[in-house]
Amino acid sequence: MYNMKQIGLAGLAVMGENLVLNMADKGFSVAVYNRTTSKVDAFLAGRAKGKTISGFHTVKDFVAAIERPRKIMMMLRAGEAVDQFIGQLLPYLSPGDIIIDGGNSNYHDTIRRTRDLEEKGFLFIGTGVSGGEEGALKGPSIMPGGSAAAWPQVKPIFTAIAARAKDNQPCCAWMGSDGAGHFVKMVHNGIEYGDMQLICEAYQVMRDLLGMDTAAMHKVFSRWNEGDLQSYLVEITASILDHLEEEGVQTIDLILDAAGQKGTGKWTVNAALDYGVPLSLISESVFARCISAQKELRGQAALILAGPTSVFIGDGTGNEKVLRHLESALYCAKIVSYTQGFSLLHEASQAFGWDLDFAAIARSWRGGCIIRSVFLDRIAAAYQHDASLANLLLAPSFAEEVNVAQDDLRAVVGLTAGYGIAAPCLSAALSYYDGLRTKRLAANLLQAQRDYFGAHTYERIDRPRGDFFHTDWTGSGGATTSTAYTR
């Protein structure tokens, strides 16, 4: 008879294997299961050999080997596979047992699963896990949410295996009820999309406008990683630009410029539309991947569509002036990207009653995860000072910085537009900043147009908010108005 294990994990792909090893290295005993049983055998004979890990070929034996209340973590592909495996577990579970979904599930599915399993007497946690293969093994950022009664029982394991920030605090915190954990992870991934695209736009400015080679760009990104832009993504960008093939060719120059995506960026954009949050920068990062994937179409268009005829000749500073503008512009746009992401978290928290702790979220992203950076300490401090802060740009420290950096952002966006460099996220950052700071936008005309063709009504500046009016613009439209008004 096997010794009872403290936790079980199903799904021995890259993330699952490494999380199991992380748990075992932190002193926990683990039962493992995989639908393809040969993976279980190979794992036990290889990386798991000699550790407090036992493998099983049937769901029944797997569940029976875990001490009660059972804690079973799934690292499976999001969607139907998760529901199917939950269905396989249920006949062998006891009331109070805990099922944990550590994959990138849609938060709507997590809300449904939490409700359905609690009705059956079980507990459910939807857990965001970020950090990739290395993070899973050495310490990821962990974002759990779901059945609150389950948190005290899994907290010792999660906080032990999580990454540690520089102040030695675990990068793990309880997010809230039902889908809160997976929603926070989804927004994390949306911000990741924005961060990556912004870096790519800076890279393209260096490569295509400034004519820099990869060695020079490596030096710039390495230097940037020692300042305000210090982050995992800037760090690995510098490393990528320094990587050579065996024959001495730069690896980056051999990679096709067609990006893939798994869907969490799209989910983030969909959520922003659902809750009316202007997530323009992150949305553009998703669409940038879409246009990159149209490689053949772009090849055709390059032969037909013209760009600017002017040629960049520099200003005699050896690119240093433009690089200073670019560093500042990238930092400014990064602030905007996080502002939009946290604005979406703010709206969702209110909509679902999650009472998200934004300072705790920022702290949990400081280590282990893909967007970890020195910048997150400042975000945590801003929300620690004012937990009700509706927009990060209104925090005094960030407002002061973007008020200065916006000139550099304008200079870079102007350069990219003038010389035909696609920079959708840098441009979106500037448009959002200008839109947010504009007291009177042109939406009064838009509302007049809506009322003209559809009698959708409008509000007036000389009347209280919430009072709606209609004008008979043509003299023959009458007083009937539409009842479908959405601000």
Quickly list its features.
single chain, 487 residues, alpha/beta, 19 helices
What does this structure look like?
The chain has 487 residues and is of the alpha/beta class. 52% of the residues lie in helices and 7% in strands. It contains 19 helices and 8 strands. Helix 14 (320-352) crosses helix 18. The longest helix is centred in the last third of the chain and has 33 residues, at 320-352.
Shape estimate: globular
Q: Strand content of the residues, in percent? A: 5-15%
What share of the residues lie within helices?
40-55%
Number of helices: 19
Instruction: Please state how the strands of the largest beta sheet are arranged side by side.
Output: 3-2-1-4-5-6-7-8
Quaternary state of the chains: single chain
Overall mean pLDDT: 95
Element layout with pairings:
Blueprint: E1 7-10, H1 14-25, E2 30-33, H2 37-45, E3 53-56, H3 59-64, E4 71-74, H4 80-89, E5 98-101, H5 107-119, E6 123-130, H6 132-138, E7 141-146, H7 151-161, E8 176-177, H8 180-209, H9 214-224, H10 232-241, H11 264-275, H12 280-293, H13 295-302, H14 320-352, H15 358-364, H16 375-385, H17 396-418, H18 424-437, H19 443-454
Parallel strand pairs: 1-2, 1-4, 2-3, 4-5, 5-6, 7-8
Antiparallel strand pairs: 6-7
